[in-house]
Amino acid sequence: MSEPIPVIVSGVSHLQTDFTDSMRELKQLALADQLKPVQEFTQMLELVNHKTYFGQGKVQELKQLAQYHQVDLILVNDELTPAQLRNLEKDTKLHFLDRTELILQVFSQRAHSRQAQLQVAIAQLQYQLPRVHPSGNPLDQQRGGGLANRGTGESQLELDRRVIKQRITKLKHELKQLQKALTTQSKRRRQSQLPQVALVGYTNAGKSTTLNGVLDYTKQTTAKQVGVKDQLFATLDTSVRTIKPPAKARFLLSDTVGFINKLPHKLIAAFRSTLAEAQNADLLVQVVDYADANHEQMIDVTQQTLAEIGIHDKPMIFAYNKADQVTHEPAQIKGNTIYYSAKRLQDIALLIQLIEQTLSRDYVQIAVVIPYACGDIVNQIQANLTIQEQYFTAKGTYYRLQVARSQAAQLQPYEIALTDKPMAISSFHQ
């Protein structure tokens, strides 16, 4: 592995109350992109300079600081406009990477599935389109190299932009075709009649560790665990597992991509389909890094991002992970909140208990008669639902079930009144 590239992390406060935390997060993003922060450079301004982001005097000061540290790459804590980027590079002869492009690069490195790779590539190209230079490789995704040179004419610039637009169109078409198959998989999961629970939250809060902990507690040794790393955006692809608690109703649990402050809008749009599991979920579990002093702000960012992708008013559990680093008290449940450690199985047991209690509030009792010709529906009921009573009638199999309202809606064509019990051919109770 090559040595990390030294960089200066920089930013303008423009009256952000969370500016210090945001700069700290920028350093973490740099490390995730194999960059090595060697110096921090900040300026306190009410508004950023629309031409050069920093004030003119600060631009020259930054240039001298970069020469002193022998640094060629500057990270900026906001998204630069194309004009700001051009002016900064022209005035300093340095390369600049803004927060948006840095996040896109980290996502590019973490993308393993074809879907994630396509989503990131589209977002990168959309970001590059207004910033492409008249010469060099317009599809170069790693700035600071080929895109730094200034070129010749407008015709070449338009040609480069046309190439990018054509590439975006091609990738979007491929993504659309891929998403058809993924939508079919998601539809099958909804038809399974199982309640769907989605883990959401800030990046590196412990969602994947929580999912693995649930698999360990339920002794599902054959279920594939998800990768866990102590780094930002270790997980980009949604993972879904069927959870089988002892003597309890089963449910689906999904691990989704983490959020971060100032997550690029283009990236949110690109990953909208990846977050479909959260949109379709019956219950959200927001995993929070309780040991992080900024966890309340992280909750706000998560709530805002969920709202941006159209998720409103869903039942939610707040799961404060890493509580063992904050207090020596055992895990505890308070209303719809749990304080726990994803690495302690006894804590995971409490989390599962809270999930089951929350899901059960939306449960109803129904009676259905499933025609004998509908063997697939019978199989789904037998495999996934809590059966309270079952017997055979002249028209089909009678079931009295305890189900979530969403499950009841799917069985509505076969529903009868609970008091209207048809005559049995043979009967047995479970």
From TrEMBL:
PROSITE patterns: G_HFLX. Its main location: cytoplasm. CDD domains: HflX. The keyword Ubl conjugation does not apply. Residues 195-363 form the Hflx-type G domain. Residues 133-153 are annotated as: Disordered. Keywords: Coiled coil, Cytoplasm, GTP-binding, Magnesium, Metal-binding, Nucleotide-binding. Residues 161-188 form a coiled coil. It is found in: Cytoplasm. Belongs to the TRAFAC class OBG-HflX-like GTPase superfamily. HflX GTPase family. PANTHER family: GTP-BINDING PROTEIN HFLX, GTPASE HFLX. GTPase that associates with the 50S ribosomal subunit and may have a role during protein synthesis or ribosome biogenesis. HAMAP family: GTPase_HflX (MF_00900). Monomer. Associates with the 50S ribosomal subunit. This is GTPase HflX.
